[in-house]
Amino acid sequence: MSTPAENENRIARAPAPLLELVQGPAGAAARPAGLQQRLVGAVRQHHQLVWRSLRRFGVPERDLDDAAQQVFLAFSHRLAKVEVGKEASYLVAVGVRVAANARRKLSRSPEVLSDEVETAPAPHTPEGLLSQKQLREELDRGLLQLSLEQRAVFVLFELEGFSLPEIAGALEIPLGTATSRLRRARAHFEAWAAGRNIDGDEP
Question: For the chain, what is the largest distance between any 2 Cα atoms, rounded to a whole number of angstroms?
């Protein structure tokens, strides 16, 4: 099992294979210099957002690196058509589709939550690390109670800070649909949290 420090280092190193892929001779030669620079910048800036979102959308840990690569490859093919400043929205929208494909492949397998991956640096004390791990595991369990459609809106709004108009645009759904999905996701998540006593009080 990886230690928290090893997991943090792994995440810090994670863009390297992607950068090698997009900076390789074949990929770079196929794109104008400006687009190539933009692609490399998107990998550096948004890799952790993509990786974290894919995990929250239900992609198993063992498949996260491959799934992230799929997202950025799809992004590279459409880069010229993605509006400048909308890269993050486009990437998470592709991530939803990649996660849906990954979930379909797992449909005949039991859902297993990983206890090895930290998504952000945790306080460097045993108590802090344990608290971070427990909170993340509870969050993952709660997210699994939601459909992928609801989970995508909930994660992007509540955890990643996207606005509802941004989410609606990224997912290509009406604003009213995004709003209703968020409302239903909140209700389901809050009901689950109340049943799990997530606020920390003793039953």
Answer: 62
Tokens 């108009």 correspond to 165
Cα gap 44→28, rounded to integer Å? 16
Q: Which amino acid is at 113?
A: L
CATH code of the domain in which 159 resides: 1.10.10.10
Tokens of 67: 């799934």
Instruction: Assess whether 115 and 173 both reside in one domain.
Output: no
Domain that holds residue 194: 145-203
Say if 137 falls within a structural domain. Answer: no
Question: Within this chain, do residues 81 and 149 fall inside the same structural domain, yes or no?
Answer: no
Rounded to whole angstroms, how far apart are CA atoms 182 and 91?
Answer: 20
Among left, alpha and beta (phi > 0; psi -120 to 50; other), residue 172 is left
pLDDT tens for 7-16 read 444 444 556 6
In a domain, 135, yes or no: no
pTM score: 0.71
Do 56 and 114 contact (CB within 8 A), yes or no? no
DSSP labels, 113-175: --SS--SSPPPSSHHHHHHHHHHHHHHHHHHTTS-HHHHHHHIIIIIT---HHHHHHHHT--H
**Residue 136, in any domain of the structure:** no
